Amino acid sequence: MSWWLVSFRRDGPARYISHLDTMRVVQRTFARAGIELALSQGMRPKPRLSLPLPLPTGAAGLDELAVVEVVEESAAALLPVRLAALRAAAADGLAIERLVIAGERPRPQAAAAAYECRLDAPGPAVDEALAWFAGQPCVSVVRQSPKGRRAIELKEYVCELSASPCDAGTKLAFTLRYGPGGSARVDEVVAALAARLEIEPVVLDLTRVRVTWQGLPSRSFAATDEIAPDGHVRGQRR
Amino acid sequence: MRSLPKESPGENRLQHDLTDLLARVARPGRYVGGEFHARRKPGATPRIVLSYPDVYEIGIANSGLQILYAGLNDATPAAAERAYCPWPDMATLMRARGVPLWSLESGAPVHEAALWGFTLQHELTYTNILEMLDLAGVPLHVAERGEADPIVLGGGPGTANPLPLAPFFDAFFVGEAEGRLAEIVAALEAPTRAQRLGRLGAVPGVWLPHASGGRAVATGKSGATMAGNGRVERQVFMGFAHTSPVTEPLVPLIEGVHDRAVIEVMRGCTAGCRFCQAGMWYRPVRERPVAMVVEAAARALRSTGCDEVSLISLSSCDYGGVREAIAGIRERFPHVRVSLPSLRVDSAAVVLARLGDEQRGSVTLAPEAGTQRLRDAINKRVDEQAFAAAVRGVFGAGYSGLKLYFMVGLPDETDDDVAAIAAMAESALRNAREAAPGRSRISIAVSSFVPKAHTPFERAGFAGEAVIRRRQELLRQRLPRQIRVRFHDVGTSLVEATMAMGGREAGALIEAAWRGGARFDGWSESFDAGIWRRAAAEVGIELGGPAWSSTEALPWRDVDPLVDDGFLRDEGARAVRAETTADCRDGSCTSCGVCGGEIEMELIR
User: Does the CA dihedral B87-B89-B94-B96 come out positive or negative?
Assistant: First the structure.
């Protein structure tokens, strides 16, 4: 058995599916590629597959990560073959980019993620809303969940907010920090700004551009690293 | 990588509109396609759109549509695309923004297609058809359609009685279309709409409900007529046993209601259950060879990545090679589950089910009726001993749950028959506890009998709302508390019966209900009995459908099911006498009239 880190992009039609559907699509991709995933123990074994940072439905992800355990004892030299098989088996909108063998079970945790989306509002108005956001000591939203209501302080999590012009509105870019208590959600950030802008709180054209991970095994993985054909990491540029 | 379907005229505007819509609806994955094995043939003509008139998750799991989709795209010059019924949140947005219904493959408006085919699987999807026509901008009524509108064609088992839908459909294909796809596509090459319809009408199995040359037939109580291009024979695909099943089916990005590979092992059923329309409609039985089934399963599993394959048919336990097929698949794929739908009520069937799937926790058996007399009357040849053995077999094989299906409202049913359902369930519970103390759960599901066209009970009539409700209550009172019971909603059965038994006049009811807001009537959270009652009052129809006397002409008489009317009447008479009829696959021909000429039963042993 071996643990693999799989770097992939989710875009096109696949951006409109949920986290659980993405799990299933990735699992099926492995099955079609003829790569057997290891199964968990118990009455109802499940494939050992995790996507450590769920991507919201409707979002493209350019820097996504999956952690899988495969039945085979992987040799780095075989990774290009496996990668080619996965690419051929991937559904429309799922692009498998890199494979890396992890020496031990990886337990990556997201530290931060950069997002971009479109606001249906003119640039100057968005600039004013961002200035308002920056000037507030706190911007809270209330999150309703089956566990009850919880106040989320957006300014604990949101940083690097910026705006730029784009077709049909204004492009908003920001980074969410993740910690043990979780983070804010993209729709909560947009809702706070939309309230200020007096526009409909709808997240349009959301893309997760980049994710910064913690807890990856040494010498293994960063999503922008170049992976050599033998499966080894060629450079740790971040 | 494409972000949304393209290759359409005006694609930029549509793409922008779609992006905007998709951000505002639940489950946007329903509307974008992107399935593995989706076929895209940009520029190919004619463009055909296939629709299952329900939400995507239901429609994508329909194997009939997968067969036609693969057949049209892979074996004809046509480009076959798909559209499903948008959920009300999306429909509201589409209307507000003027976005017409699009097909998943190209993103082009459906109304630009040459042909729009609907599969008619059950009556409670009929208002969705009107919803889809309206969302696409295609006039609801045939008379209002022009040269640029697609020809709207219906197929599937609903064509057994196409009359209620006749106002909205240009044509119906009666029977199995696999063998006629090339002819249908060729007919679409004619230069004008009228010529295309004319050529379609010459394809065997195609019924044109508005053809002027047809004879008009009075249909009894309603006085409505059925002008058309004459009596049309149901088409039987005799290439079935010699043609591989679809092994590269659409694999959806979002999960459908059945998340597994599907191999159709057999078509048709000769068990002869007198309430079952499919059992009459898909005759004769044709079985695929075991080697073909195993090879197709292997290909489908590899090409889909599924971890389960279902060997489907109307009665897969009766498939002559079922044991060998399960063993053959499990030998090549030890971790794959092989499931069988519609288990026969006997212990051998339970053993077969276990052979294919050790993980499943429960099974379903369908005795259908509580007394031997009534089971004999409906020709469900199950006796008490076989039932008891099956129940012991279920729990002895390690299952922890058993669901039993029954019907109420069957012809000649009495209160005693309904009370016997409770007694049967109670005895099943006793047997279960003996076989597996401490881990036996039994539940029952009770549906309402709805008479269907071309069955021995086609003139039986619907029992009525009051009778069904009273019998449901009677049963509820008699069942032990340990047995969970779920009753099918009587309101939906009333509507279903009205469509199943109705003539052309029922079209006005469908339209009135749709205009009143009826959508997704098969969904309990969407069905609104009040809308249907108001619509029925508006058009002057009594819900529950007419009961046709033995002397009245039936509305669907111009649809020839190949099963003889005399056979159906004889079976109806035998039902009154509670006499069973044997399965003809056991050697004794029942003279149903289907076999003859090129049509014959094809058994592998």
Answer: positive
CB A33 within 8 A of CB A88: yes
Neighbours of B586 (CB within 10 A): 7
DSSP letter, residue A86: H
Domain coordinates in residue numbering, chain A:
2-108+215-235, 110-210
Given phi > 0 = left and psi -120 to 50 = alpha, else beta, which region is B171?
beta
Identity of the residue in A15, A32, A92 whose CB atom sits nearest the CB atom of B303: A32
- Closest of B91, B69, B310, B96 to residue B177, by C-alpha: B69
Q: B38 in contact with A at a CB cutoff of 8 Å? A: yes
* SS3 of residue B109 by DSSP: strand
Percent of chain A with pLDDT over 70: 91
Average pLDDT (B542-560) is 90
Determine the pLDDT at residue A223. Answer: 42
Give the residue ranges of chain A where pLDDT is below 70. 217-238
**If you measure CA to CA, which chain B residue comes closest to A45?**
B359
Half-sphere exposure of B352 (CA within 13 A, CB side): 26
Q: pLDDT tens digits for B3-41?
A: 344 444 444 455 667 888 999 999 999 999 999 999 999
How many of the other CB atoms lie within 10 Å of CB of A238?
10
pLDDT at B99 over 90: yes
Q: Is residue B440's pLDDT more than 80?
A: yes
Number of Cβ atoms within 10 Å of the Cβ of A43? 6
pTM assigned to the model: 0.92
CA B451 to chain centre: 15
CA–CA gap between residue B90 and residue B87 (Å, rounded): 6
pLDDT at B218 over 70: no
By three-state DSSP, how is residue B237 classified? Answer: coil
What ipTM does the predicted assembly reach? 0.89
d(CA B295, CA A147): 49
Say what the pLDDT of residue B587 is: 78
Residue B254 forms contact with A (CB below 8 Å): yes
Q: Which of B214-228, B543-557, B588-602 has the lowest mean pLDDT?
A: B214-228
Topology at the third CATH level for domain A2-108+215-235: Alpha-Beta Plaits (3.30.70)
Q: Do B305 and A202 touch (CB under 8 A)?
A: no
B562 DSSP 8-state letter: S
Given CB atoms, is B3 within the 8 Å cutoff of chain A? Answer: yes
Domain spanning A110-210: CATH 3.30.2350.10: yes
CA distances from A207 to A7, A190, B208 (A): 16, 13, 50
In sign, the C-alpha dihedral spanning A119, A123, A128, A131 is positive
* Chain A residue numbers touching B307 (CB-CB < 8 A): 31
Task: Give the number of other Cβ atoms within 10 Å of residue B111's Cβ.
Answer: 19
Q: At what angle do helices B322-332 and B347-356 cross, to 10 degrees?
A: 20
CA distance B416 to B474: 10
Of A13, A31, A95, the CB nearest to B253: A13
Query: Which region among A113-122, B52-61, B212-221 has the lowest average model confidence (pLDDT)?
Result: B212-221
Contact B403, B368 (CB under 8 A): no
B229-258 pLDDT tens trace = 788 999 999 999 999 999 999 999 999 999
Taking contacts as CB-CB distances below 8 angstroms, the residues of chain B near A57 are: 27-29
Of A14, A31, A203, nearest to B253 by CB-CB distance is A14
pLDDT tens-digit map of A167-199: 889 999 999 999 888 999 999 999 999 999 999
DSSP per residue, B449-510 = ----TTSTTTTS----HHHHHHHHHHHHHHS-TTSEEEEPPHHHHHHHHHHHH--TTHHHHH
Q: Quote the CA–CA distance of B546 and B564 in Å, as a whole number.
A: 22
- Of residues B41 and B216, more confidence is placed in B41
Which residue from A14, A31, A60 is facing B34, i.e. has the nearest CB?
A14
